[in-house]
Design a protein that fits this description.
By secondary structure, this protein is α/β, with parallel strands linked by helices. It contains eleven helices and twelve strands. It has a single domain, classed as 3-Layer(aba) Sandwich (Rossmann fold), CATH 3.40.50. The chain is about 40% helix and about 25% strand. The strands form three sheets. Strands 1, 4, 5, 6, 7, 10, 11 and 12 form an eight-stranded mixed sheet that branches. Helix 4 links the parallel strand 4 and strand 5. Helix 2 runs antiparallel to helix 11 and helix 5 packs parallel to helix 6. The radius of gyration is 22 Å and the shape is globular. It starts with a helix and ends with a helix. The structure holds S-adenosylmethionine.
Length: about 300
C-alpha cells in the first residue's frame, strides 16, 4: 500500500452485533457457493453494490484492567466488511465489482485492492442503482457462462425496484438483500395524513408500484370520538410481519428461481431493523437446489 493511500484511508463505523450476523451469512454463502461452482466451467462474479471501505470499525466497552484501571474506556475493533470477505473467499471469484458513491471510501477500497494484486477487482465510484443496472444489462449472463452473487447492503431505502428487476433478469445472479424494515416503518406511518409526497415517492421507488398503499392501509369505520360522534379514519393495518410477507411476495414476482424466508435482524431494543432476503434469479432446478441447499442452512443457523 502506498503511504498516500494509508494516510487517507477512512474508518467506516457502522452496525451492531446484528451486522456481524448479516456478514456471517454472506461469508458462509460465498465460501460454499465458490466451492460448489468451482467444479463447473462458469466465470464466478461477485458484485458489492454498497461496498463501504472493505472494513468495519466498531467501538466496544473495554474489559476492565486490574493494572491501569481503564474502567469506562472503549476498544476499537476492526473486522472485515463485505468487500474484504468477498476478496478473501476461496476459491477466489474470477471478478469482483465494488461499487461505492463516497469518494473517501473509494480511496480505502483502492488501498485494499493494492493488498490483493492477484485479484481482478473493479472499483466503481458512483451510484449503486446506475452501476448495477449497467452491469446487469450489459452481458448475456447465461450465454457467456457467467454466474455470481450480488450483495445489496444499503443504509436505508436506496435500492430502486429497477435495480432489483435488472438483477432478476440476469437469471444468473443470487442476491442477498438487506431490506430496511425500519426505513419502511418511517416512510409508512400508521396515520396516512403523515404520508407526505417524499415518503410516497420513496416507497414507490423501492417497490416499483404504488399497490402497497391499498394493501397496507384501510378505512376503519364507525369509530366514536370523545363526544360520541361517529367517524371513519384510514390507518395502516399491517405490522412488520405482514410487511415482510408483502415484500417477500413482491420479490417472488420477479425472481424466477426462488426467494427464501428472510432472516429478521433487530435493533438493540428488539424493534425490527431489517430482513435479510436471499433470492435466486436462475430458474434452472439444479441452480435453485445448489443455492437453496446452502442458503437455507445458513439462514436457519442464523435464526
Ligand atoms: C451499510 S454500508 C455498506 C457496508 C458494507 N457492505 C460492508 O459490509 O462493509 C452502505 C454503504 O453504501 C454507500 N452508499 C449509500 N448510498 C449509495 C449509493 N446510492 N450508491 C453507492 N453507494 C452508496 C455508503 O457510502 C456506505 O458505504
Amino acid at each position: 500500500m502506498s503511504e498516500g493511500l494509508k494516510e487517507t484511508r477512512v474508518k467506516h463505523e457502522f452496525g451492531s452485533s446484528e451486522t456481524e450476523r448479516k456478514l456471517d451469512c454472506l461469508r458462509s454463502y460465498l465460501a460454499a457457493y465458490s466451492v460448489a461452482l468451482s467444479k463447473q466451467s462458469f466465470a464466478r462474479i461477485y458484485i458489492d453494490a454498497f461496498a463501504g471501505t472493505g472494513d468495519r470499525t466498531e467501538t466496544r466497552a473495554a474489559l476492565p484492567s486490574f493494572f491501569n484501571g481503564n474502567v469506562g474506556s472503549v476498544d476499537e475493533i476492526t473486522t472485515p466488511g463485505s468487500a474484504r470477505i468477498a476478496i478473501e473467499t476461496a476459491p477466489a471469484f474470477h471478478s469482483i465489482a465494488l461499487i461505492e458513491n463516497d469518494p473517501e471510501k473509494v480511496i480505502a477500497l483502492r488501498a485494499i485492492a493494492e493488498e490483493y494484486p492477484n485479484r481482478r477487482l473493479h472499483i466503481r465510484e458512483g451510484d449503486a442503482n446506475a452501476e448495477v443496472q449497467r452491469i446487469c444489462n450489459r452481458y448475456s449472463w447465461k450465454k457467456e457462462r457467467m454466474r455470481g452473487v450480488i450483495f445489496l447492503d444499503p443504509y436505508g431505502m436506496e435500492v430502486s425496484w429497477d435495480t432489483v428487476a435488472s438483477i432478476a433478469r440476469t437469471e444468473a445472479l443470487d442476491c442477498w438483500y438487506f431490506f430496511p424494515l425500519s426505513g419502511l416503518y418511517r416512510n409508512a406511518p400508521k396515520d396516512p395524513l403523515k404520508l407526505d409526497q417524499g415518503k410516497i415517492d420513496a416507497l414507490n421507488r423501492v417497490f416499483g408500484t404504488d399497490s402497497w398503499r391499498q394493501d397496507w392501509y384501510a378505512t376503519e369505520e364507525g369509530l366514536t370520538d370523545l363526544l360520541g360522534d361517529l367517524f371513519n379514519r384510514e390507518r395502516r393495518i399491517v405490522d412488520a410481519d405482514k410487511i415482510e410477507e408483502w415484500v417477500h411476495a413482491r420479490l417472488k414476482s420477479v425472481f424466477k428461481g426462488t426467494v427464501l424466508k428472510p432472516l429478521r435482524l433487530k435493533h438493540a431494543n428488539g424493534a425490527p431493523m431489517a430482513s435479510l432476503f436471499f433470492a435466486v434469479s436462475n430458474p434452472s432446478k439444479a441452480a435453485v437446489k445448489v443455492a437453496t441447499d446452502i442458503a437455507n442452512h445458513i439462514l436457519k443457523a442464523g435464526i
